[in-house]
Amino acid sequence: MKQPAKLYRYRPLSDENNLLERELETLQQSYLYAPSFSQMNDPMEAFYTTGGPEDQILDVLFSRAGISTNVLHQPFKEMVSRFGLVSFSDSHLDLPMWAYYGTNFGGMCLEFDTEKLTIGDLQSERLVKVNYAESAASPITVAGMLGGVEPLLISQLARKRIEWAHEREWRYITGCVGRKHYLDDSLTRVYLGPRVADKHADAVCQILKNRPVEVMKGEILDFALHFHTLQQAAPFDACE
Q: Residue-wise pLDDT tens for the chain (240 aa)?
């Protein structure tokens, strides 16, 4: 599946709960944070079940040796528990996303060059398009794992309920949680919401004044969200 040329990440800007300091630090130090699946707002993230008719047959065959397929599933479960993710959308004009994740239009949306984003800490991680469905994937079985663990991981960790389809999500599935640094020119634009506080906009512009990143400010015109340039991207020979 062809990847989008740009990826977008909606972020909050708020004086509450140190959100502003956290987001400014990620800009200053050029990193994205990959949380665990259990930290996401969707309690069904990474939902999967194990076992099936094939496993029941194996359990009968293994019973004399005191072995259960549950034991064989355990390494898979431990692997999933260690994984993290970094989520993106393929649009910066998704109004519900601005409301949910962009501090009710007072936050920001980061625009990344998809190809350049793979050069940093994410170069060995897999970018996948989220599959939206009305039901869970088939249970994980021992026979299925013999066919390859990676396809099973992708099918489970890139699946969400259909109600989330409006997010049009792409995600990096990372081998561990934590900071994932990127090259400065991977970040191409920062879109500020139309309700962004002036002091928050100034702080973002100050951090990016010597970076090849254009800062744009949103406004509502003709029943639509538009953006105009607030700060030009610095020329490459003037960048830090």
A: 799 999 999 999 999 989 999 999 999 999 999 999 889 989 898 888 877 777 777 767 777 667 777 777 787 788 888 899 999 999 999 999 999 999 999 999 999 999 999 999 999 999 999 999 999 888 888 777 777 777 788 888 899 999 999 999 999 999 999 999 999 999 999 999 999 999 999 999 999 999 999 999 999 999 999 999 999 999 876 666
How far is 189 from 15, CA to CA, in rounded Å? 23
Q: How far apart are CA 240 and CA 237, in angstroms?
A: 9
Four-point Cα dihedral 127, 113, 96, 195, nearest 10: 150
Tokens coding 169: 């999500």
Locate the DSSP E strands across 96-184.
108-113, 126-129, 131-133, 159-161, 169-174, 178-181
